[in-house]
């Protein structure tokens, strides 16, 4: 599954990071699953490796994390901060990983997420509003923070195995022609969301199959073979 949620408030995005994205109750093989910077836009800003709260909050405030100056020209109240692209693995995949910690599953999941996000990034555009123009220019770069979580929020104190990733993508893209950062135009990406969802699942299923996992089709979806249907339904 792929969900796309818009965030229109800097304070809300900061709270979302603190309370949701970077929760320290998610662990993989005894280590915190740290957020990491991704995207050609992140490279342009000099952001790589682990996501630090200060850098994330600077981008929420439309500020360049390195220079401290404005990132895009316009900063206004309730500006569109960015989009949370939320990728969900099938329940059987989450259960298998929770029971075994098989690194092949995590590697395949992260690879499928990142390859799909890179494909989305190719559709990135910036708005052109100079000299009476009102169009969009392809830019092919985005800035996103990737967070992988292993469970859903606890219900009644009990966490549910749920492997998923948040790719929080900021509303900024570098326009090489004008030499400036500007607000992104995400219309094409939103329109193609059903395709990107299908592409993510095709990548994940294909990579797991190549690792030797059995894939069972169920209608339009799929699950790992060998995981009882009753267990999938229970969770």
| Ends distance | 16 Å
Going across the major beta sheet, what is the strand order? Answer: 1-5-9-8-4
**Helical percentage:** 25-40%
Radius of gyration: 19 Å
Shape: globular
Number of strands: 14
Main sheet attributes: strand count, strand direction, barrel closure: 5 strands, antiparallel
Order of helices and strands: EHEEEHHEHHEEEEEEEHHEEH
Give the overall pLDDT as a whole number.
Answer: 87
Total DSSP helices: 8
> Which structural class do you get from the secondary structure elements?
alpha+beta
Task: Provide the β-strand percentage band.
Answer: 25-35%
Q: Low-confidence runs (pLDDT<50, min 5 residues)?
A: 24-32
How would you describe what is shown here?
This protein is α+β, with helices and mostly antiparallel strands and 235 residues long. It has helices spanning 10-21, 40-44, 53-60, 91-100, 103-121, 187-191, 193-210, 229-234, and strands at residues 2-7, 27-28, 31-32, 36-38, 82-88, 125-128, 135-138, 144-155, 158-170, 173-175, 180-182, 184-185, 215-218, 221-224. A 5-stranded antiparallel β-sheet has the order 1-5-9-8-4. Strands 7-6-12 form a 3-stranded antiparallel β-sheet, with no helix packed on it. It is globular. Mean pLDDT is 87; it is low at 24-32.
